[in-house]
Amino acid sequence: MHVVHVASEVFPYSRSGGLGDVLGALPAQQAKLGAEVTVVSPWYASITEPVREVWRGELNELPRDLGEVRVAEAVREGVRYVFVGLSVFDRPGLYHEDDVYRFSMFGRAVLPVLARLRLLPTVLHGHDWQAALVVARARLARLRTVYTIHNLQYQGKWNMYEGRYWTALPEFAYGLDGLEYFGEINLMKGGLNFAHQVTTVSPTYAQEITTPEYGEGLDGLLTRLSIEGRLSGIINGLDQERWNPRSDPYVPSFSDLRGKQAATQALRKEFGLDDAPILATVSRLAEQKGMDLLIEALPELVKDWNVVVLGGGDPLLTAALTGWAQHPRVAFTQGMNEPLSHRIYAGAYAFAMPSRFEPCGLSQMIAMRYGTLPIVRETGGLVDTVPHDVGFHFRDATHTALKAACDAALNTPPAEWARRVDHAMSLDFSWSGPARQYLHLYQRLTGQ
């Protein structure tokens, strides 16, 4: 079986968040289980990992003014990585305001590139809206397709006039059963309609997105897919080697609560914190992540906690946290910093995830692996991954509910806390189970 994953980012070559982490780990695990696996992603100007150019030329399937296409390869952990170089990806960074155009060009290039390299997929597996056009084109080419929603909020919408020209699909594809969405094109809707099977990254999120509250305008379509048996949830895994407190190069190694104390003291020293427990978060700064709730709760939280935040995003939230960083019990570092994130996960006492919605989430899994207990809102993958006898849950998306859950954590007796930490560090979040679930799904689709 040859599985071809298509995604806008893949760790360690390109990454802005959880999508890149998933594509860095899931294909490798599938390769270990015996599948032939290829990952196709853009060849961004910012990629610094070594890759080898294998083809260069023009593709008839693309507009001529796009110029030459460059294709590179790399092999890592038994997985072939194919990078499609287009002029629209020559800018610094991964994402820009014209991404619907950029990923439409990418979507038109993927299948011709695979044909040039003689890489015929048994199953093509597209991820999020940036790969939706590839899924639609693969279905039209009679390939078996799986489409995974990592975050339904971002759908790839544009006006119909330019969108039709960019995507260049047959006329029937722009109807209600295709890409049309209130007079616009919607790439994600096209992926949902054309895929043989749709998955999302946790069972609870798969249920939530069939409701108006979480369905982002596509709840009707998703409900139909669910009724037809074409929608399911498979929880994400975690790269157990990259996130391993016993061998992490960025923190003092430890395997239990007692050993964790060295990491906690190092984090206190790094940020000049006092002896109050450390509440941390590593997150994109967005209302989806509930970061505004955390900021609203800060006046009360700093009475009992040190608060450490690492992340970037919304300018207003960034400005608010920058102001709060003047407080002796608040430490804020803007942007993403891989070594620092490891030190925070390892050294914190508890980890806050007050998300309004959370398709799966990796941070809570990482935190538990490092013995840092999550304080989470009951939604999506947080429900599916954080046991009630490990973390602390709250229902309402309010700063008062978040503060109450933090109080419950703070008032937990030491013996009970130690038991929760031991349980957290024993949980298995490896990719082995999810990778097998996806392979079984492919087998059902193909009869192999």
UniProtKB/TrEMBL annotation:
Q: Residue ranges of the Starch synthase catalytic domain? A: 2-223
**What does the UniProt keyword field contain?**
Glycogen biosynthesis, Glycosyltransferase, Transferase
- Which reaction is catalysed here? [(1->4)-alpha-D-glucosyl](n) + ADP-alpha-D-glucose = [(1->4)-alpha-D-glucosyl](n+1) + ADP + H(+)
Molecular function terms in GO for this entry? Answer: alpha-1,4-glucan glucosyltransferase (ADP-glucose donor) activity
This protein's pathway reads:
Glycan biosynthesis; glycogen biosynthesis
The Glycosyl transferase family domain, residue ranges: 266-413
Q: Where does ADP-alpha-D-glucose bind?
A: 15
EC main class here is transferase
Q: What is its EC number?
A: 2.4.1.21
Q: NCBIfam families from the xrefs?
A: glgA
Q: Which PANTHER family does the annotation name? A: ALPHA AMYLASE DOMAIN-CONTAINING PROTEIN, GRANULE-BOUND STARCH SYNTHASE 1, CHLOROPLASTIC/AMYLOPLASTIC
Q: Give the similarity note.
A: Belongs to the glycosyltransferase 1 family. Bacterial/plant glycogen synthase subfamily.
Function per UniProt: Synthesizes alpha-1,4-glucan chains using ADP-glucose.
**Any idea what this protein is called?**
Glycogen synthase
Native species:
Deinococcus antarcticus
User: What is this protein's gene name?
Assistant: glgA
